[in-house]
TrEMBL record:
<dbReference type="InterPro" id="IPR001206">
    <property type="entry name" value="Diacylglycerol_kinase_cat_dom"/>
</dbReference>
<dbReference type="InterPro" id="IPR050187">
    <property type="entry name" value="Lipid_Phosphate_FormReg"/>
</dbReference>
<dbReference type="Pfam" id="PF00781">
    <property type="entry name" value="DAGK_cat"/>
</dbReference>
<dbReference type="InterPro" id="IPR017438">
    <property type="entry name" value="ATP-NAD_kinase_N"/>
</dbReference>
<dbReference type="GO" id="GO:0005737">
    <property type="term" value="C:cytoplasm"/>
</dbReference>
<feature type="domain" description="DAGKc">
    <location>
        <begin position="15"/>
        <end position="147"/>
    </location>
</feature>
<dbReference type="GO" id="GO:0046512">
    <property type="term" value="P:sphingosine biosynthetic process"/>
</dbReference>
<dbReference type="GO" id="GO:0001727">
    <property type="term" value="F:lipid kinase activity"/>
</dbReference>
<dbReference type="GO" id="GO:0016020">
    <property type="term" value="C:membrane"/>
</dbReference>
<dbReference type="InterPro" id="IPR016064">
    <property type="entry name" value="NAD/diacylglycerol_kinase_sf"/>
</dbReference>
<protein>
    <recommendedName>
        <fullName>DAGKc domain-containing protein</fullName>
    </recommendedName>
</protein>
Length: 371
């Protein structure tokens, strides 16, 4: 149905039986979220006489806290809710990680499942990469997607860390524990990307307000610094499909190890061309210890076509699990990236990434995304 967006009929996820929350992540990307809300979103919502609450971030923890104190309570009390999220990938990951961690039950827990109404999330991309919004097709016209799209379950993956893993916070200056004890393994959930090597290092290097100012250039600036003094990452990498044996690359040092559930990490950075929107697949992209010129050539092919995946120097496979045993002294080479967050692994530690299936006993889908 055509016509101006204010005249479009309301989709079911904006009906009056839904509790509607607008979350404005004011420091994402170029810090345009508040302005976009004031000038564009609010007038549209008001033109439909919708009732909604707004929440503005005031720290890195705001979306996590809001999920704990409000979204999870609503969801488990049977309240239907729609969250209109003005942020980058960090915001949706905070919601998915927090909900999954809270709702996680052991497989042998025989108590009947409680009510859980999956929150519906409308993505309004305001970050730098906005990988999920580009990959799910909503970034081109987010308001059109909000008005005409359909909610679809968002696939995710689990990342388990050996004891002693730490979350890097405060622009790289501080470390936060992930569990209450250093003897325990810890778990984080993501929906976009896991990486180690060049990708994780460049996200870590550029995850601060100074770099964020440069928009997408932030990643290229960090990459060129890393490529001038290239490091080969030491550790044992293995992956597999369920029911098959673990496999290893033919090289012993790594440049690039990345597992993703999306096709695009940015609008034109097609890291996994075979991935379809929200198809639930996890794909590995890996490059060995190549010289900087080769890595530049291979990553250059990612823009915009994704031709790198047919190069013999790139491993590109659909996987269900990936594990890494780290063999690095210096902490900065033991940093991994989960949807933009950086976690440091303890010396001689390990990490294991597992695709969460959509059906069966291990299935878990905690939100729906309108696309
Ligand atoms: N008011 C605030 N005070 C402190 N930190 C904030 C505030 N608002 C947002 N943040 C933080 O800013 C960061 C923005 O991350 P987000 O992923 O939304 O955007 P991005 O990193 O620019 O884009 P992308 O992840 O799509 O590349 C997050 O860590 C978020 O918690």
């Amino acid at each position: 149905m055509g016509g101006p967006i204010e005249n479009q009929p309301l989709p079911a996820h904006l009906f009056p039986d839904r509790e509607i929350h607008v979350v404005i992540s004011i420091l994402s990307g170029h810090q345009k979220a508040q302005h976009y809300y004031d000038e564009t979103l609010k007038p549209l919502l008001d033109s439909h006489n919708l009732r909604y609450s707004t929440h503005t971030t005031n720290s890195e923890r705001t979306i996590v806290n809001l999920t704990r104190s409000l979204f999870v309570i609503n969801a488990t009390q049977g309240v239907k809710q729609t969250i209109i999220l003005l942020s980058g990938d960090g915001g949706i990951t905070d919601i998915v990680d927090t909900l999954t961690s809270i709702l996680n039950r052991r497989n042998d827990d025989s108590r009947p499942p409680s009510i859980f109404f999956k929150p519906t999330v409308v993505l309004i991309p305001m970050g730098t990469g906005n990988a999920l919004a580009w990959s799910s097709g909503v970034a081109r016209d987010p308001l059109e997607s909000m008005m005409k799209g359909t909610p679809r379950s968002l696939p995710s993956f689990q990342v388990q860390f050996s004891p002693g893993a730490r979350l890097v916070v405060n622009e790289g200056r501080n470390r936060e524990v992930l569990t209450d004890s250093d003897d325990k393994e810890s778990t984080v959930y993501g929906a976009v990307v896991f990486s180690w090597g060049l990708h994780a290092s460049l996200v870590a290097m550029s995850d601060n307000a100074e770099y964020r100012k440069h928009g997408l250039e932030r990643f290229k600036m960090a990459a060129s610094r890393l490529l001038t003094d290239l490091h080969y990452y030491r550790g044992k990498v293995q992956w597999r499909k369920v029911g098959e044996d673990w496999k290893s690359p033919p090289w012993s040092e790594q440049s690039y190890v990345l597992a993703t559930m999306v096709s695009n990490l940015e609008e034109h950075f097609k890291i996994s061309p075979a991935t379809k929107p929200l198809d639930g697949t996890l794909r590995l992209v890996s490059i060995g210890p190549e010289p900087a010129s080769e890595i530049t050539r291979l990553l250059g092919q990612v823009y915009p076509s994704g031709d790198h995946v047919s190069d013999p120097k790139v491993i590109y496979e659909e996987i269900d699990g990936l594990k890494i045993q780290f063999d690095e002294e210096d902490e900065r080479w033991r940093m991994v990236c989960i949807d933009g967050k950086i976690v440091t692994i303890a010396k001689n530690g390990w990490v294991e990434v597992t695709r969460i299936p959509g059906t069966g006993i291990d299935a878990r889908r905690v939100v729906e995304v309108v696309c």
